[in-house]
Specification:
Shape: globular
Number of strands: 8
Strand order of the largest sheet: 1-2-4-3-5-6-7-8
Helix content: 25-40%
Radius of gyration: 16 Å
Oligomer: single chain
């Protein structure tokens, strides 16, 4: 296997693609699942995704990490991306896989950078019954562009949690704040010292502001569930 850890399963990338998307499950004690997509320059087993997964697990959330089609086809490539429709189909397929594991438990769709963009696009196109959307380092200002990219609006009033670093060059302070000003269903947390790539291991310390942000967004989504 080209992966450092054997996948737990695979799902179809989409109707127009022969690629299957491997996924990995990291189980915790709670009923909720997070389907977590990676960035364009990373992959599902990248240290950044490992860091997010560990924090989510400590909060009791199970995590399903999946590979987008470009990464599934070339696991060791440096960077890549799929056509928007194919990336959105991957998000929908990952949601279905996580929902199959969760049963009646909630499923949150999440992504880092590129994964966050495709997640939000998917939710704007498809009325998936997700409990919420967690957008990590959302790339509001794409590389090599000086203008803001459109910020898709999910169907319905889906709760959205944006977690961005104070040093994120793809969403400088003030940009997401302005873009989300008219969206009462969206919350934003700025994490001190975090850049777009979340390159500092200390950002994932279990008592730090990232944990507080994730807990603040995710815990209310469990309210009202049967014990």
């Amino acid at each position: 296997s080209p992966w450092a850890r054997a996948p737990d399963g695979a799902i179809a990338a989409g109707e127009d693609s022969p690629v299957t998307l491997p996924y990995w499950c990291d189980r915790a004690s709670g009923p909720g699942w997070v389907a977590l997509g990676h960035g364009a320059g990373a992959g599902p087993l990248h240290p950044v995704l490992e860091g997010f997964t560990e924090v989510l697990n400590t909060l009791g959330w199970n995590v399903l990490r999946y590979a987008f089609a470009f990464r599934a086809a070339r696991p060791e490539a440096r960077i890549g991306r799929d056509a928007p429709a194919l990336g959105q189909a991957a998000v929908a397929a990952a949601f279905a896989a996580a929902k199959g594991l969760a049963g009646v438990g909630p499923v949150v769709l999440a992504g880092h950078s590129y994964g966050a963009r495709r997640t939000l696009e998917c939710l704007a196109q498809r009325p998936l019954p997700a409990a919420g959307a967690l957008l990590l380092a959302y790339p509001l200002v794409p590389p090599k562009r000086r203008t803001l990219a459109p910020l898709p609006r999910p169907k319905g009033r889906l709760q959205c949690g944006f977690v961005s670093g104070e040093r994120d060059s793809h969403a400088p302070p003030g940009t997401l704040e302005a873009a989300l000003a008219d969206r009462p269903e969206a919350q934003l947390w700025r994490i001190p010292r975090a850049d777009h790539g979340w390159s500092r291991a200390r950002l994932f310390e279990l008592g730090g502001p990232l944990r507080q942000a994730l807990e603040g967004f995710l815990t209310p989504l469990l309210e009202g569930l049967d014990p």
